[in-house]
Design brief:
Keywords: Protein biosynthesis, RNA-binding, rRNA-binding, tRNA-binding. The protein is of the alpha+beta class and 92 residues long. It has helices at residues 3-9, 16-24, 69-72; strands at 28-30, 33-34, 46-51, 54-60, 76-83. The chain has a single domain (3-83), classed as Roll (Structural Genomics Hypothetical 15.5 Kd Protein In mrcA-pckA Intergenic Region, Chain A), CATH 3.10.290.10. It contains 3 helices and 5 strands; from the N terminus they run H-H-E-E-E-E-H-E. The chain is globular. It starts with a helix and ends in a 9-residue tail after the last strand.
């Protein structure tokens, strides 16, 4: 399945156009390699997604073409979530 479609179907990112934009900016890695929106993902791949000040590491558990909300959560597991420190605002 294409990366942008997986991100939308799994509801990690709400819109496919946003998933495409983020991945084409080089902010998503598949198995530690920069990915484009058209990159294929398979079960067992690890995604590192950089959202602004948040970085999320996700393992793909299942590929499903269409899902309901409760099924979407079964498609991946979050391995790590980290946040950049924002010294300007005193937020950690």
């Amino acid at each position: 399945m294409r990366l942008d479609k997986f991100l939308k179907v799994s509801r990690i990112i709400k819109r496919r156009s946003v998933a495409k934009e983020i991945s084409d900016q080089g902010r998503i890695l598949i198995n530690n390699k920069t990915a484009k929106s058209s990159s294929n993902v398979v079960v067992g791949d690890q995604l590192i997604i950089k959202f602004g000040n948040k970085t999320e590491t996700v393992n793909i558990l299942k590929i499903i073409e269409t899902t309901k909300k409760d099924e979407a959560e079964q498609m991946y597991e979050i391995v790590d979530e980290s946040y950049k420190e924002d010294f300007r605002n005193g937020i950690n």
